[in-house]
Amino acid sequence: MGHMRGGPAKAAVVSSAMTGLISGSSIANVVTTGTFTIPLMKRVGFSSEKAGAVEVASSVNGQIMPPVMGAAAFLMVEYVGIPYFEVVKYAFVPAVISYIALVYIVHLEAMKAGMKGLPRAYTPKPIVQRLIGIAFTIAAICALSFAVYFLMGWITPTFGKSAGIVVFALLSAVYVALLWIAAREEPLHMDDPNEPVKSLPLPGPTVRAGLHYILPVVVLVWMLMVEQKSPGLSAFWASAFMIFILLTQRPLLSILRRSGDMATEIRAGFTDLIDGLVTGARNMIGIGIATATAGIIVGAVSQTGVGSSLADVVEVLSGGHMLAILVLTAILSLILGMGLPTTANYIVVSALLAPVIVSLGQANGLIVPLIAVHLFVFYFGIMADVTPPVGLASFAAAAVSGGDPIRTGVVAFFYSLRTAALPFLFIYNTDLLLIDVDLAHGIFIFVVATVAMLLFAAATQGWFLTRNRIYESVVLLLVAFTLFRPGFWMDMVAPPFTTLAGSELEQAAMDVAPGSEIRLQVDGLDAVGDPMTFVAPLVVGEGETGADRLFATGLELIDNGGEIVIDNVAFDSPAQKAGLDWDQKVTSVQVPAPQPSKYWMFIPALLALAGVVFLQRGRAARASAA
After folding, report:
1. Residue numbers of the chain with a pLDDT score lower than 50
2. Which terminal residue of the chain, N or C, has fewer Cβ atoms less than 10 Å from its own Cβ?
3. Angle 576-556-591 (CA atoms, 0-180°, nearest 5)?
């Protein structure tokens, strides 16, 4: 990606996304990919804080990147009661959209700074050939992985306790073979990390000269995924093999190249090892201090019960308004995230406030799936690793970049605004989570939501085709919101439901087709005997009369002087699953009304976008002419 504007930063986003496929730890993602990408970003013109912030923003999103999400996602399976595959499906579109938007944010930052891509070191092949080559490479890697997995599966049962020695011998043979490939290339010379990058190296020789460095990663993944050892033991064996490589690569390369002094190369190997240990220890000092300081806040939060007290405050302050409690829940997650790890933060907030959000949604006529609420809490829980003053991922990135950790966290927080906006959007538009959506509609939603998120990023970054005027940013935000939730405006133009009195419930059930959904506004008592009002969705069943259709849902009613009272609800019936119970009063009924397609709202949104493009292209042309 070096030929693109801000290429190293875009490479940081892509590499963190790929690391997020197999790792749910944001801090591990930062120190794994950031070690390589942060120095490169600084060399092409990014400040220390911006380089660290890009790495933090992209690494934190690794926790929401399927298939291996953060540990809280596995707890979500237990809390919501759905298979893990369903969680992965629901989280897929928001995660991918968020990463695409971050690539665009990096592009905008590069445009603001006037960065240019570097000339390629080779002439690229046509795009079709490159795509075929990429597909062939992926297929070859998958085939090799399956072959290694099935061929090495017999080693442990065959050799028993000696299996470790056999595996080490096989790895050593592969290591020597890869060194032989590296020896055929010209030695790579260490460049000055403080000098700007002026040219791109040829990828082929660079890759072939360092293929053996991937072996410790292979050991790590093998121990974790195949042998299923603990993370600590897996990291130990991966580190041990890395030390073996550091001590032996120079002498073996000198033998294979038939050049150099053996004693000098051995001493250089020990010097590399000592330098690596010293650098690693220095980089861990900042992280260790931040973790120790955060431990004090963790103790204060967990031992004093402040979490449950804050939840009570949030419920009171919301005043029964859905948007208010969502905003306050997000703020609570950020506050608790300053002192709790992301998983603990998710456990506390979801246990205390997820039921409140669902019930408030029902009271406001908004049917919110439980998985959407838990993902809402999960998204703001991962922001704990970003937000100052205790954003551990920001401290980890600052340790690599040499920048100020608080400023790094602040910049990373603004880069992460696109992640903070997504939970609010999928609460009100569950299509983004692919809930009850077919494939064609899902692809359409993905494309439209991606465009909307790019416009949101352009508005919040203050740059689209050129620097935004304030009114242009406002228009871009409105266009992005319309693309995300066109039904908001259409509901104002043509309400989706017609409201009838509760006494017309049977007639309403008779007028709609079987299988249609009606909504009942119900007055009743909650579990502790306090009065409550909520909206229950009910799918009308088959029957010759309205009463028969309601009875098919498990609902029996009585007319008490004009008041419709629920007399009985059948066990495990659709009515019971909708939250209905005996002795509740049906005050009104909402029946579906004819409504134009909500996607008609895209027309004024796209016209407004075209106006912004026209204005900005004119300004950009005048600026370039001047």
Report:
1. none
2. C
3. 75
